Amino acid sequence: MAVTWGGFVLPIFKRQTALNHVATELFKGRDFKLETLTTERQKVSTGTSQICNPTELRNAVVVNRAILVDSIPLGQTATDSTAESLENSARSAVACEPSDSFVWLTLFWLDAAKHGFTPQNSRYLELSYANGPNEGWIAYWRLQVALAYFDRLPRELSDSVVADFVKLLDTQILYNEAAAIFAASPVAAQSRIVDALKDATENSQLMFAKVLAREGINVSIPNAELPDSRPWER
Fold first, then answer.
1. Distance (Å, whole) CA 182 – CA 212
2. What is the pTM of this model?
3. Of 30, 50, 174, 178, which is least surrounded by CB within 10 A?
4. Rounded CA separation 162/1 (Å)
């Protein structure tokens, strides 16, 4: 029995270790060559166990998403086939672990790109917020995805998007990234975000105001009075 158990479990463990490493590095922002990612996907598709394994299934989603992003410049055929693989892996993952915020966000991203914003894929975004309201590493991507549809979101969901932005800013790490997201947001979203920033920490308010000013974005942030620039700094 021990030998049988080892023969079944050890290959899964080895596969998970490699996939965990790749997935973790992808979340940190590291880039991998498309060939490397494709090899990892092959391991997933040929070696995934039949049991419900949330970690392994999520890793499949992470790898497939990275492949899709890298495949977009290669043309429609490559993108379509990779998108299908990603959707299949995401649906398998949420069937195994319905509380995975990242996977629900992936499903929203895919479906909204294909069909536009709909009541069905709106539910996917709602589930992402419901299951991961305070996960900064998810919020960074979720903000970029959700803000593109901000004008069509129901009020409760748009409130979640705005709250996501404030929480991301209060991590006091991603000021430059938050400024880039803000600059690309619809005007209505920018107005709501600025109003909500009254609840951010004072340091976050001041640092964000400084980054916006440096980027030439003229917005008045609550509780962040910046001194007038010197003539040679204008």
1. 9
2. 0.80
3. 50
4. 54
